[in-house]
Amino acid sequence: MRHRTMPRHKILPEISEKDFNLFRNLVKKEVGIYIRQGGRKMLGLKLSRRLQHIGFSSYSDYYRYLLEPEQKKELRHLINIVTIDQTSFFRGKQQLEILSKRILPEIVLRKIEKKHIRIWSSGCSTGQEPYSLIMLVYEMDNVDTSWDIKILATDVNTYSLKIAYLGEYRADQVTEIPPAYLAKYFRRESMGGEEIFWIKESLKERLIFRRLNLLMPGNRLKGLIDLIFCRNVMIYFDSATKKKIIDQFYRLLEPKGYLCLGLSESLLGIDDRFELIGRAIYRKKE
Ligand SMILES: C[S@@+](CC[C@H](N)C(=O)[O-])C[C@H]1O[C@@H](n2cnc3c(N)ncnc32)[C@H](O)[C@@H]1O
Q1: Cα torsion for 69, 73, 77, 78, to the nearest 10°?
Q2: Best substitution site from 77, 82, 83 to test ligand 1's pocket, by max atoms within 8 Å of Cβ?
Q3: Alpha carbon separation from 47 to 23, 34, 123, 224 (Å, rounded)
Q4: Would you state the pLDDT for residue 9?
Q5: Cβ-based neighbour number of residue 163 at 10 Å
Q6: Ordered DSSP codes for 84-152
Q7: Distance between CA atoms of residues 202 and 133, nearest Å
Q8: 7 Cα: distance to centroid of ligand 1 (angstroms)
Q9: For position 68, what pLDDT does the model report?
Q10: What's the pLDDT score for residue 6?
Q11: Pocket probe mutation, ligand 1, options 119, 125, 229, max atoms within 8 Å of Cβ
């Protein structure tokens, strides 16, 4: 690796305003996330760890290195460290309650002949969201293992996706899972004195994990989607970016398909082709 000009673990100086602006523009361009001024110290800290790990001594040298066309892999590392992966099983309980009482039964009824359901968790982080969804679908009346159910689970963060794919969680990460589901859908193992919970293969095989940047849409499920989850992903995106992403969702959804946002998010002023059902759940109007 080039630029190995300083010993590891030496504290780098605080990131300058100029360098901060370079990196925040790059992050905005690559993944849509706008880092506020207050995030300067945190970004500097995250970057300085990465810089030292790969042997750079200055933020601007690292920035120039990232711009080289052959450094796509390092750019992914940058994205991995700036994205926020906070998530949990059954996050947004009131919303999920509406989903399992009203929305999923309606989708199941619509699909009772075809036995075919497509869901997309866009911004799935470390997997808790798509795994919660597949548990809810499996709990639906009239749904059995003969149904063709697929959940596309995508994120831009490759590190989070690896964890999601593994489907392995610590005891403190599964506290929000109803005990009956935990017993039914997880395998429990004791490893080095710690209890580990593994999602069962029969559920995992319904999930398709892919790296997908919502700003640069790539491969998706063939055919239209019944339900899209995009929760707590676009909170740092500007309106123009949100509009573009919601427009893609609109085109990918079945007529009267559903879109779930995070509980603090809304489509107000973004897109009026959806009607609000409640708790940030939207239905495509036609
Ligand atoms: C706070 S987590 C939310 C996870 C989950 N949806 C939830 O609500 O619990 C936000 C996720 O969005 C992902 N993300 C951010 N920008 C993205 C983009 N441009 N394309 C795809 N995923 C993105 C991050 O990597 C992160 O995993």
Answers
A1: 10
A2: 83
A3: 9, 16, 23, 40
A4: 53
A5: 16
A6: -----TT-SHHHHHHIIIIIHHHHHHHTTTT-EEEEEEES-TTTHHHHHHHHHHHTSTT--TTSEEEEE
A7: 14
A8: 34
A9: 94
A10: 45
A11: 125
Ligand 1 site, residue 31, Cβ cutoff 6 A: yes
Residue nearest to atom 27 of ligand 1 (CA): 125
Tokens found for residue 61? 């040298």
E-assigned strands of the chain? 116-122, 148-155, 168-170, 186-191, 194-199, 207-211, 225-230, 253-261, 274-278, 281-284
Question: Whole-angstrom Cα distance, residue 185 to residue 197?
Answer: 10
Token duo for residue 209: 């994990």
* Edge-to-edge strands, sheet with 253-261: 207-211, 148-155, 116-122, 225-230, 253-261, 281-284, 274-278
Specify the pLDDT at position 1: 47
CA distance 54 to 6: 11
Distance (Å) from CA 114 to ligand 1 centroid: 31
Whether residue 214 has its Cβ less than 6 Å from ligand 1? yes
**Residues in the chain where the model's pLDDT stays below 50:** 1-7
Let me know how long the chain is.
286
Domains of the chain by start residue, with CATH: 17-82 (1.10.155.10), 93-284 (3.40.50.150)
